[in-house]
Here is the input.
Amino acid sequence: MIELDQLNKHYGSLHAVRDLTLHVPGGELFCFLGPNGAGKTSSIKMMTGLVRPDSGSIRLAGIDAVTSPVEARRELGYIPDMPFLYDRLTVHEFLLFTGDLYGMEREHVRSEAERMLELFGLLEKAHTLTKELSHGMRQRVIYAASLLHNPKVLLVDEPFIGLDPHSIRLIKDLLRERTRQGMTVMMTTHILAIAEEIGDRIGIIDRGHLVACGTLDELHEQNEATGGGRLEDLFLRLTMQENAG
Here is the structure.
């Protein structure tokens, strides 16, 4: 469902993403890890169409996201690390607005909005202006809006920043359930324990290079780690090696 081939992005002299090739099938929760500035967010933004790649190809749900960006975005949900909401809209109005952007029929939008409000515990906040919401509630609204059109691919950039334990559990359970239903989820996070807990596969990127990719067991095998070990140890060892090189 996500196919990246030889993807490259420069910002001036900085080669932010280097020949990134990665395939994530339907029904997989893929955790994309790396130090700050490693190329995670640049990769995500190229997939969303917010940033244009210098070279390489991106296919989302079988659609070329570079040559057919509008069609690709119809199959895509995106939760950024710093969500943006229209402060003068209520939660319910924001969901209706989002549904209109995706060309959904108004009655279908209304029924799905009601379902999302209930799912994310937002019914009591439905007629509250988004500017009056806490960070955690704003994150819930973004999830509700991103899933409103039932996308085939969901990109999630640092989903747990500033969330309380209840919200973290809600999001983890939601991501697991959606992948069981066939959705492709690609998530960046700095919380390695969560990646270890919920990721079907893990990719580690550093200085634009994909330095490792696979299940946790496969990562240990590829890098001759012994005794299983923690993901944190493996992550630190791989990125330190890359930086030392």
User: Anything to note?
Assistant: DSSP finds nine helices and ten strands in the chain. Strands lie at 2-11, 14-24, 29-33, 55-60, 63-64, 76-79, 153-157, 184-188, 201-206, 209-214. The chain has two domains: 2-75+152-244, 85-150. The first strand starts at residue 2 and ends at 11.
